Amino acid sequence: MSETVADASRQTSETEEGASRPGRVDTPIRSLAWFALAGVPLSVATRWVPGAPQDTLNRAVIGAVLVVAPLGLAVAWATSPGGRGVASKLRGLLAWLVPLAGVGAVGSMIVPATSATAAVLVGPWVAATLLAVAERRLALGRAWREPEGLAALGAIVCAAVGAGWLAAARLGLAPFGVDPITHVLVVVHLHSATLAGPLFAAAALRRLASDGRAARPPVAWIATGGQLLGAVGVALGVLVSRPVQSVGTLVLTVGLALACVLVLRACRGAPWLPRLLLLVAVASAAVAMPLALAQAAGRPFGASLTLEWMLRIHGQANLHGFSACGLGGAYLLLRSPTRGD
Fold first, then answer.
1. CB 268 within 8 A of CB 319
2. Helix/strand/coil (H, E, C) string of 80-99?
3. Angle at CA 56, nearest 5°, toward 114 and 119?
């Protein structure tokens, strides 16, 4: 009898370990990844929906909600332990709630702002992101204090904050008195680059550890925590102090640069498609972040790059090149066999 219990316990342990290893992807993760892929043509198709926004900024929000955010959640689940019990049930719920809520959030951008319909449509998106935060916290346990866990949890918290700002926009509210353009910029960043950056690093750390090439703890902390800390600094700078924004952008850039180095290391020996996507992401970051630094550094001295230039180069590189391609590459990298397989 004791041997039977021991064998069952051992099999359960091996199953849990295997489920969290790169190359093993459970159903909720795969479902979100497929929806993110379907979100690409869906976001393009909304251009022809009557009443849909046509400006670059709001189009970016639609793409971020339908593609980047679901894919980011899939990567967050794949980079850290899955957990059992309530956390497992939440993942099953979120696998279908996130797609439906994302479509609803986009719908709230089509109907008139401040209307009851807009509130009803955007509400589930806020709820879904908050449930995603709860799931990560329950699943990680004490592992949230490690670089990978902190990156996964912090990234999902960013998405939840972004969902709150999107809801505020659709309800006609202006948190901290920000102007409408800044408001939409905050929504875009929290649903895309601010979400993708820490997960970009976490996926690389996960892959390197699985290959027996684990990064040193200080490097891992700077690559993940530096991006989260820098994002907080940028947010405070936008709301409170422009010089603080410059410092926050610098800290974020250092963390992201180190994350790119880790990704390049993790790419070695990977299949061609994830390697290609991750290289595109690294190249996009190399284009986008110097512009962000120049714009942030110019502000304290009364000069800055024009919004049009930033949207055309920094914005497109951030959303499509870095966030979408980076998370897509990270997801495929975590699915690909490791050297030990």
1. no
2. CCCCCCHHHHHHHHHHHHHH
3. 20
Q: For residue 260, give both structure tokens.
A: 């790119």
Give CA torsion, residues 170, 175, 178, 182, to 10 deg: -50
Find where tokens 């021991």 sit: 6
Nearest partner of 204 among 154, 289, 264, judged by Cα: 264
pTM for the complete prediction? 0.89
Q: Tens-of-pLDDT digits for all 341 residues of the chain?
A: 434 333 433 433 333 344 445 445 588 999 999 999 999 999 999 999 999 999 999 999 999 999 999 999 999 999 876 667 899 999 999 999 999 999 999 999 999 998 999 999 999 999 999 999 999 999 998 889 999 999 999 999 999 999 999 999 999 999 888 999 999 999 999 999 999 999 999 999 999 998 889 899 999 999 999 999 999 999 888 777 778 888 999 999 999 999 999 999 999 989 999 999 999 999 999 999 998 888 877 654 444 567 777 888 999 999 999 999 999 999 999 998 876 55
DSSP H helices, 240-324, are 242-266, 272-298, 307-309, 316
Q: Which long-range contacts does 183-188 make (Cβ < 8 Å, 24+ apart)? A: 184/57, 184/58, 184/61, 185/57, 186/162, 186/235, 186/238, 187/61, 187/64, 187/162, 188/57, 188/60, 188/61, 188/64, 188/315, 188/319
Residue type, 262: L
Q: Which residues contact 332 (CB under 8 A, 6 or more apart)?
A: 271, 273, 274, 277
The one-character DSSP state at 146 is S
| HSE toward the beta carbon, residue 210, CA cutoff 13 A | 31
CATH topology of domain 26-335: Cytochrome C Oxidase; Chain A (1.20.210)
Token duo for residue 175:
């948190």
What the block records as the tokens of 193 is 């680059």
* Local structure of residue 66 (DSSP, 8 states): I
